[in-house]
Design a protein that fits this description.
The protein folds into two domains: 1-73; 85-368, Up-down Bundle (Na+/H+ antiporter like fold). α8 (154-161) packs parallel to α15 and α12 (256-287) packs across α15 (325-346). A two-stranded antiparallel ribbon has the order 1-2. With 370 residues, it is mainly α. The chain has helices at residues 2-18, 22-40, 50-64, 81-94, 103-106, 108-132, 137-148, 154-161, 166-192, 200-225, 230-254, 256-287, 292-303, 307-316, 325-346, 359-368, and strands spanning 71-72, 75-76.
Length: 370
């Protein structure tokens, strides 16, 4: 029924688009994606893409009716970006514990390669792509900012689905996120300092208050109230999804005019950045003779960035409509490519047979906490 509704909505969207009745057509574009998302929920192969499709619905809404996501009364909705990111980081902290860093002891080689690959491959790729395109300076800086950001939270889920090393994935995500306040500003100064003004100390503090403080609060919360607040465990995934979708929608509405001019090219650049991240991340593991599971993990960790954090940094720079555009495009795109890659690898189990029998069961328990 919802596939049929999506088909009808798509036809009506095209009709109104041809007739240049964009206001009405936009609503049918939103209906198309929402119907498709609901339909995907009933398909075990497409279920993982339903959230991404919802984001597309929100982006279409922001493109056709940006006023809903720019300002309510005298309040600018862009002011919500930082609190939403802090909420996301609190959720991450509340699901973490000291054991998440035990992977450093168990697999120091994998962690070191993963972290170094993350903060070398993606910044260099971002700088290269920004240099060979003819984007305005601030939008080019946004591409570099995505590359200088830490691993994305969705990488842990994709690593599990790809039958990669989930423990290594969680450890790399945790470490790259925690050192981001120190590494990201320095990388931005080095690669993007000629494009936009970078105040290293201010950016360090901005990232610190977006990451370290809320994650620390989450860790304390988890330590004191672990197992005593199941309602929070249930609610946080939905709060996180809403936060990510709303952040992307706000940025899209703010940068609508720029997206209309450079949208297709920016999508192509983001796709290249993302896919080359997977490719080079995978082969960085192969170069150091790591097992297949670990190579898959590093590929996903390198390719999937924390677009939400990049958006927050752009907001603190006062350039959400320009520097923040690359993050708004990269976020939904990486979920599509990440899901596709994870599905492809899921059907091709790693050849290593020396895994502890309880490893997968432990990964299921770990994943349930994310």
């Amino acid at each position: 029924m919802f596939y049929l509704l999506a088909g009808v909505a798509l036809v009506l969207y095209i009709i109104f688009l041809v007739r240049e009745q964009h206001d009405i057509g936009g609503w049918f574009g939103v209906l198309f994606f929402i119907s498709l998302a609901i339909a995907f929920r009933s398909n075990k192969f497409l279920k993982g893409l339903s959230f991404t499709v919802i984001i597309f619905a929100a982006v279409v809404m922001a493109m056709y009716h940006p006023g809903y996501f720019q300002q309510w009364g005298n309040y600018k909705l862009s002011n919500l970006i930082i609190p939403l990111i802090q909420l996301l980081m609190f959720g991450m902290g509340s699901s973490m514990s000291v054991k998440d860093f035990a992977g450093v002891v168990r697999s120091p080689k994998g962690v070191m390669i993963g972290v170094l690959s993350q903060f070398t491959i993606m910044p260099v790729l971002g700088f290269t792509l920004a240099s060979i395109t003819n984007f305005p300076a601030e939008i080019a800086a946004g591409i570099i900012l995505i590359g200088c950001s830490p691993s994305g939270l969705a990488s842990n889920v994709m690593a599990y689905l790809a039958k990669a090393n989930l423990a290594l994935s969680i450890t790399i995500t945790s470490i790259t996120t925690l050192i981001a306040p120190f590494v990201t500003p320095l990388l931005m100064k080095f690669f993007a300092g000629a494009l936009v003004e970078i105040d290293v100390m201010k950016m360090m503090w901005d990232i610190f208050k977006m990451i370290i403080i809320p994650i620390g609060a989450g860790l304390i919360f988890n330590r004191l109230l672990s197992g005593k607040s199941k309602w929070l465990d249930i609610a946080m995934p939905f709060v996180s999804m809403f936060s990510i979708a709303f952040i992307i929608t706000i940025i899209t509405a703010a940068g609508r005019e720029s997206l209309l001019k450079i949208g297709p090219l920016l999508i192509a650049v983001a796709l290249m950045h993302n896919t080359f991240g997977y490719l080079l991340g995978y082969w960085s593991g192969r170069l150091f003779k790591m097992e297949e599971r670990d190579c898959r993990t590093i590929a996903i960790e390198v390719g999937m960035q924390n677009a939400g954090l990049a958006s927050g940094i752009a907001k603190e720079m006062g350039k959400i409509a320009t520097v923040g555009l690359a993050a708004a495009v990269f976020g939904p795109l990486m979920n599509i490519t990440g899901s596709a890659l994870a599905s492809w690898w899921h059907g091709r189990p790693p050849k290593e047979k020396n895994l502890d029998p309880g490893t997968r069961e432990q990964e299921v328990r770990d994943l349930s906490q994310l």
